[in-house]
């Protein structure tokens, strides 16, 4: 099967099975709502949305991602929030310096490969529910921290299928402080 000429891509932190389990438990603990729950297999933290990507852009980006250096780090998710305009419930936490550096390196790599990048500052969040009713959902004031030992990042394709959106990991890169060039 050949790859399409244009793919809808993003770079993400992809949770390991234990973190994914805790995220699904958090979804289960939230009050009933009329929103659309993100499927457990689709839970992720976007580092950089790329959008429609040509084969040449993908090849360029993968070559640059091969040279990104960032140490593994721990991400602690402790906050729940709601954004009215996109109508999403999210979980997030503090921004470790390594996470911010990684996101910045991703932007630089994508810019070198002729991607048009959203210039808003990076935000550390993971979407739990989409398409919430316009009013503010009732969320717990506190949640049990979810500790995520981040060891790699992934290039992911977004596929629209009959049953909804599905994300497919195309490639992963381990986090390491130095890269062999």
Give an overview in words.
The chain has helices spanning 17-29, 55-65, 97-112; strands spanning 6-13, 36-37, 45-54, 73-83, 88-93, 125-130, 146-150, 152-161, 164-174. By secondary structure, the chain is α+β, with helices and mostly antiparallel strands. The radius of gyration is 17 Å and the shape is globular. The two termini are 32 Å apart. The model has no long low-confidence stretch (mean pLDDT 90).
Provide keyphrases for this structure.
single chain, 181 residues, five-stranded antiparallel β-sheet, four-stranded antiparallel β-sheet, 22% helix, 38% strand
Share of helix among residues? 10-25%
N-to-C SSE string, H for helix and E for strand: EHEEHEEHEEEE
Q: Which of globular, elongated, flat, extended, rod-shaped describes the shape? A: globular
Low-confidence stretches: none
Q: Work out the number of β strands.
A: 9
Fraction in beta strands? 35-45%
How confident overall, as mean pLDDT? 90
Report on the biggest sheet: 5 strands, antiparallel
Structural class of the secondary structure composition?
Answer: alpha+beta
- Rg value: 17 Å
Main sheet: which strands, in order across?
2-6-5-4-7
In whole angstroms, the N-to-C terminal distance is 32 Å
What's the helix count?
3
């Amino acid at each position: 099967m050949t790859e399409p000429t244009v793919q809808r891509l993003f770079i993400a932190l992809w949770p390991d099975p234990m973190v994914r389990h805790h995220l699904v438990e958090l979804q289960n603990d939230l009050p009933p709502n009329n929103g659309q729950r993100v499927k457990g297999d689709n839970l992720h933290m976007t580092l950089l949305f790329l959008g429609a990507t040509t084969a040449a852009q993908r090849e360029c980006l993968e070559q640059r991602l091969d040279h990104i250096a960032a140490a593994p780090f721990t991400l602690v998710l402790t906050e729940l929030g709601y954004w009215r305009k996109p109508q999403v419930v999210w979980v997030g936490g503090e921004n470790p310096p390594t996470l911010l550096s990684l996101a910045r390196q991703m932007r630089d790599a994508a810019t070198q490969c002729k991607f048009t990048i959203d210039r808003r500052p990076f935000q550390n969040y993971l979407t739990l529910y989409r398409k919430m009713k316009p009013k503010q959902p009732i969320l717990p004031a506190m949640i049990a921290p979810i500790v995520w030992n981040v060891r790699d990042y992934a290039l992911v394709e977004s596929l629209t299928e009959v049953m909804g959106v599905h994300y497919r990991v195309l490639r992963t890169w381990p986090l390491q402080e130095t890269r062999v060039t």
